[in-house]
Amino acid sequence: MKHKIIATAVVPSLLILTGIISYLTIRNNWNFEIASYIIFLFTGIYILILERIIPLKQQWKSKKLELLTDLKHFIFSAAIFDALGKMMALSLVLYLQEHFFKLSYFWNVFPFFITYIIANLIGEFLPYLYHRLSHKGNPNSYISLLLWKIHSIHHLPTRLNWFKTNWIHPINMLLNTFLKMMPLLILGFNKDIIFLVGVTHVVIAHLSHANIRTTHSFLDYVIVTPQIHHFHHSIKVEEAKNFSNILPFWDLLFGTYYNRKGTVDKVGVMKYLKADYPKSIAYVKQLTYPLTTYKKCCP
Description:
This protein is mostly helical. The chain has one domain (1-291). It has helices spanning 2-27, 32-53, 64-99, 112-134, 142-155, 170-186, 191-208, 226-232, 249-254, 283-288.
């Protein structure tokens, strides 16, 4: 009974607590960078504790053999290339401002919460399209296969938990960040909104990969919960949908939303003879894997 209550409260509690920290940061004009690190650290501790208390699957717990690869992905693939993506987006927008147009900050006419929702939806759109295209894996298209082989690194793990959020190819991370931030900067959303969008992304991205038992609720249609994102990692093609990273709005709109009773059975990539996916502990081979792209490699 106690674990059932925790499973029901785990998602809304994290959203409320991190929302309070974010609200206090903006209201008191605290340093955004420091607040972001605090929220990230709090989210990580929160998830790691709950993965011990109410794990969805015992076999999904982190293994020491993969810990070094987990750290490499976190430090090199995620942190560095996320920062590069932000820097590229900001540089492009500054260039456009200087040579072509000045931004018009008309978003201030909307209520703050409405602006925040709109910014999240806009920020999700291009990454959603990129993510969806990355899953095509058309064997007759070099570009399609290249996109899949870049993204397939994120799907290599056969277990999901907090650490696996950061299993992502550097190119994938750079494009995700660039495509999310560039439209928000071009459209002139203020620094408070962009801070909140970034915080929301960090919290939900790590939560959605967590090995935590949750319950079906209306939140499955509002944010990308562990329940629906686990299905995205399913080895069954008919379940591997839900291409949105933070909000399922675009999946619901374009018919790529998937949910059902119960939980995902197995996660990972489907093994095909010509795919030759790198091993889970081979970090360098995971980085170079897209360079071996050729036609008629995989589905």
